[in-house]
Amino acid sequence: MSKFWSRTAREAEPYVPGEQPSDVNVIKLNTNENPFPPSPLALEAMEQSINADLKKYPSPTADRLKAVIAEREGVDVNKVFVGNGSDEVLAFAFQAFFDPNEAIKMPEITYSFYPVYANLYDIPFQQIPLQNDLSIDVEGLKRSVGGVIFPNPNAPTGLALSRVEVESIVAHNPNQVVIVDEAYVEFGAESAISLTKQYPNLLVTKTLSKSHALAGLRVGYAIGDVALIEGLERIKNSFNSYTINRVSLAGAEAALADEPYYDETLQAIVKTREWVTHDLEQLGFWVAESKANFLFVKPNGIGAETLYQQLKARGVYIRYFNKPGLEGYVRISIGTDDEMKRLIDIIQALIS
Ligand code: PMP
């Protein structure tokens, strides 16, 4: 706390990001990054973008990137918004669509950035407890008016709602924006993007961080009705019109164009997720049915925090949440087969 801080800085309750250890030899399974490198075509495009043109500002409208996204998602280009990671897209969406005089709803256990944004922008929020099986309470999110935000699949559980369930939430709130955060949707859940044609109150956000192995690039996007996109553009242009830099634009466009690499790496991650789930279950752990690139796990024979610490001592980072409701669980990102074999070997040794 400093006397120089504004009220906003004093009252902020910032998000605490997962550890980013500087030791390159650790096995990093704590922040849901993609274990594979970005597409070689994306790396090449970025190298080529490092040239004298960097003296110029990037395109404030990012039209080329938006066109690539529109093509991929099967929507008109004026239904696409792009931002510096989906975190930024979500922050803009909170400002653009939610007001301080009406509470929004979100699951009680969910991506912890949502309450941070809500607090930052003075938006009251109601946290709806998960059901006993840890799934999102669809009826709970539909109770009373107010905007809604939830991830599908949810984080950190990895459990997904069906498109029909998502639609029922969107249809129930026609006068409020419903944000569906699809950061992990590509790993096995049903996307709600096709519903944006029908529902002007639906905003779907996505990211290249996970599915396209570009967390370091910071590129995310939103798809929604033209009026929602215009709202986001108003907020963005009141903050930083050049929010995606030239190198990121080049990398993102090339990565999205490299479908074969995307398909191959995605399938590998899903396959690994399946055998790791099986092996953890064999060891007596409870594992939520994940549609994401991570597993939400309740260890057996060892406490969650101890498991996290013991793995860390052996150079394997997973996520332990020291938060009410999450104490008994850890979240493990899906790494390469070799990384996951090492994880399983260590766990086996720890509990035997
Ligand atoms: N939504 C969810 C549910 C997430 O877990 C994350 C990543 N931590 C994000 C959004 C943000 O992703 P990014 O800013 O890298 O696009």
TrEMBL record:
Cited CDD domains: AAT_like (cd00609)
Documented EC number(s): 2.6.1.9
Protein name per its UniProtKB record: Histidinol-phosphate aminotransferase
Substrates-to-products reaction catalysed: L-histidinol phosphate + 2-oxoglutarate = 3-(imidazol-4-yl)-2-oxopropyl phosphate + L-glutamate
Highest taxon, organism lineage: Bacteria
Record organism: Alkalibacillus salilacus
Keyword line: Amino-acid biosynthesis, Aminotransferase, Histidine biosynthesis, Pyridoxal phosphate, Transferase
Annotated Aminotransferase class I/classII large domain residues: 25-347
Associated pathway: Amino-acid biosynthesis; L-histidine biosynthesis; L-histidine from 5-phospho-alpha-D-ribose 1-diphosphate: step 7/9
MF (Gene Ontology): histidinol-phosphate transaminase activity
Residues bearing the modification N6-(pyridoxal phosphate)lysine: K210
Keyword Protein biosynthesis tagged: no
Cofactor(s) it depends on: pyridoxal 5'-phosphate
Similarity comment text for this entry: Belongs to the class-II pyridoxal-phosphate-dependent aminotransferase family. Histidinol-phosphate aminotransferase subfamily.
One Pfam family linked to the record: Aminotran_1_2
Assembly and binders: Homodimer.
InterPro entries xref list: Aminotransferase_I/II_large, HisP_aminotrans, HistidinolP_aminotransfase, PyrdxlP-dep_Trfase, PyrdxlP-dep_Trfase_major, PyrdxlP-dep_Trfase_small
Enzyme class per UniProt: transferase
Gene that encodes the chain: hisC
